[in-house]
Design brief:
Rossmann fold, Dihydrodipicolinate Reductase, domain 2, alpha/beta, about 25% strand, about 400 residues, globular
């Protein structure tokens, strides 16, 4: 079916109270491809009644054997070894880009120019300049666009945002966040695209740091100025092709940055792939005049909160709050209180939000990250790298 016919049918489905079908074309089938496909298949019966029914039209990847197997495994109707051919399929209404970072710009721009809504994994691009081209393309095409900063859709994080919006914390003084992993420490690990600047753009900064930069903007506001440091400890890795060759590993293995926000808050950011013992340790803390909030991704159903003067001083301190009640964000769709959800559920919430924006012509922002957010994130990443190279503070300029 053509794009025009497809979107007309969505309007008709809304008029009859039926959930419209929305055709998905996905680039990439590995880690994020699995997470996205799980969300597509789970969404219709858990985010109920669904705003749309994802139709798994096609998946694309370079390796024909692997992409064919992914299509069988996840239930896609078609597979392609060329994303361009996939975009020619009129049944594809949403282009979901889960490819490596160097495969973000060209396919997303092409999809937008063909009138398809675009969802792209983070970081949006390798540089701010590249991200700006993507932002311009989706804005000119008038399509819906979203970047996969899925931690915005963890119920506890949404609850933290709502507390801040309500004014409960009062003026915010501090933001501190770390994202620590250990998987990059082995010098015998064969290289991958994540260790190559030409493909990834950056290392721990873009891969992990972009998440905590996005959460800083989502929860505290715009950074005004940054000062950063980066470090590369393993400059060469095995090629992984059996030749014994060593190839450059020219990305940052870790970074730290100081941040001044427009509202006057001070912040710190740190991300590394060299934190022995840390698996997926993303933690942030916000300190305000009336209280503090702390979140740990590895305990994502919980918030640690402290409110000034809420109890006798003898027992004052942080309280651990289980974010699992029916009145908490998204929990009406899940289980009785205390029955936990996990990391994969954030993608279900994320796509539900995106499809709602498409079907009901709602804005993706401010709760969803648009390509504008992806561009601004890239500007901040570039500023941190510039600061690390120059040794000076760098102003954030969009």
């Amino acid at each position: 079916m053509s794009d025009e016919v497809g979107f007309t049918s969505m309007a008709g489905a809304r008029a009859t109270g039926e959930a419209p079908e929305i055709g998905i074309g996905m680039l990439g089938y590995a880690f994020m491809g699995k997470a996205h496909s799980n969300a597509f298949k789970t969404l219709p019966y858990m985010m109920y009644p669904p705003v749309a029914i994802p139709r798994l039209v096609a998946v694309a990847g370079r390796n024909e054997e692997a992409v064919a197997e992914a299509a069988r495994r996840y239930g896609y109707e078609n597979y392609y070894t060329d994303w361009r051919a996939m975009l020619e399929n009129d049944a594809v209404q949403v282009f979901d880009n889960g490819g490596p970072n160097d495969a973000h710009a060209e396919p997303c721009i092409a999809a937008a120019q063909m009138g398809k809504h675009v969802f792209c994994e983070k970081p949006l691009a390798r540089t701010a300049e590249e991200a700006k081209g993507m932002l311009d393309a989706v804005q000119q095409a008038g399509v819906k666009h979203m970047v996969a900063f899925n931690y915005r859709f963890v119920p506890a994080v949404v609850q933290a945002r709502k507390l801040i919006e309500s004014g409960a914390l009062g003026r915010i003084y501090h933001w501190r966040a770390v994202y620590l992993q250990e998987w990059g420490m082995d010098p015998t690990m064969p290289t991958s695209w994540r260790f190559q600047k030409s493909v990834a753009g950056s290392g721990a900064l873009g891969d992990l740091g972009s998440h905590i930069i996005d959460l800083a903007r989502f929860l505290v506001g715009e950074p005004k100025q940054v000062m950063g440091m980066t470090q590369n400890w393993i400059s060469q890795r095995p090629a992984g092709d059996g030749s014994g060759r060593m190839v450059p590993s020219d990305i940052d293995d870790a970074f730290v940055a100081l941040v001044e926000f427009e509202g006057g808050a001070l912040g710190t950011l740190e991300a590394t792939r060299f934190a022995k013992g840390r698996k997926n340790h993303e933690v942030f803390e916000i300190n305000g005049e009336n209280g503090s909030i702390r979140f740990n991704l590895e305990r994502l159903n919980e918030l640690d909160v402290l409110w000034a003067g809420d109890e006798p001083r003898e027992t004052q301190g942080f309280h651990n709050v289980l974010i699992s009640e029916g009145y908490h964000p998204y929990w009406a769709n899940w289980w009785p209180q205390g029955h936990m959800i996990g990391w994969e559920h954030s993608f279900i919430h994320e796509f539900h939000h995106f499809f709602d924006a498409i079907v009901n012509d709602k804005p993706v922002a401010p709760y969803g990250a648009t390509f504008e957010d992806g561009y601004r994130n890239a500007v901040i990443c570039d500023a941190i790298i510039e600061s690390a190279q120059s040794g000076r503070r760098v102003d954030i300029k969009y």
